[in-house]
């Protein structure tokens, strides 16, 4: 299991404390084929007080020793970023870097990495309000604005929008692929179908961000279904039947149904419908294709059929879904950051 250590200091914004848990915790729920994360909340003092308004005190189970064995260490923003961090914090971060851990910082957490000397000669970013201050205090750091996380070697820094969501998704993408990061993003920020009853941890695989939204079920497939699932995803535009899927798998309809239910929690035709819905979502998110074209490319035939199934599975219409996704993407533009300038660092 991947270990992520969140090293928090007093004045950490509440969203930067909770967002990593939501995102990293969602990975195991998306696919049983991917190892989940162990998230350790660490502090040098045993507890921290969050930033206001509505500040609260959090007791942590881990001290700086929680960084031992962590493949990733993330330092969120904190209130005293203009002051030198505690020596124990700097030593722990340097030691983690020396062991080869990936090191990330959210918002003003970048100041701690700079104070530790880890960003000298490297590019980095922070909250847009403090970029000039970062450059002034640490002239060896190539400080600049970044709408997306800035990666330089094993170091990732981000502006801290929505609690460091972009940085956490970048890490998930590096570990498990962009398909996983994209699916985690959608699960948490858009309404998506719930897993079928009794199928916890067996959610159908997510679409990869490649042509057509096809996905890779992973090395070796799933219980021998891998080649069939890949074929099914490539042939979504065709009229597929239970018999044709069973023939492709080289098995009987009864055996095919049993294997599908064991692996995905769905019957083959239920899985096919979910796959078509994922393809429709992928097309809606990534272009201006008409409903007519999407209906054809997903094998649903007519716009009316697409709207019917999309509403039943997703609880909304294709048009509303596309608008909601674009609105979410718009939240990460510089204009949104400016509008949120009075929020937590």
TrEMBL record:
Domain named HTH araC/xylS-type: residues: 226-324
UniProt KW keywords: DNA-binding, Transcription, Transcription regulation
Disordered: region residues: 199-221
SUPFAM superfamilies linked: Class I glutamine amidotransferase-like, Homeodomain-like
SMART domains: HTH_ARAC (SM00342)
Pfam families found in the cross-reference section: DJ-1_PfpI, HTH_18
PROSITE patterns tied to this protein: HTH_ARAC_FAMILY_1, HTH_ARAC_FAMILY_2
InterPro entries to which the protein is assigned, alphabetical: Class_I_gatase-like, DJ-1/PfpI, Homeodomain-like_sf, HTH_AraC, HTH_AraC-typ_CS, INH-QAR
UniProt GO molecular function: DNA-binding transcription factor activity; sequence-specific DNA binding
Biased composition (Gly residues): 211-221
Name the UniProt record assigns to this protein: Helix-turn-helix domain-containing protein
Species this protein is from: Streptomyces qinzhouensis
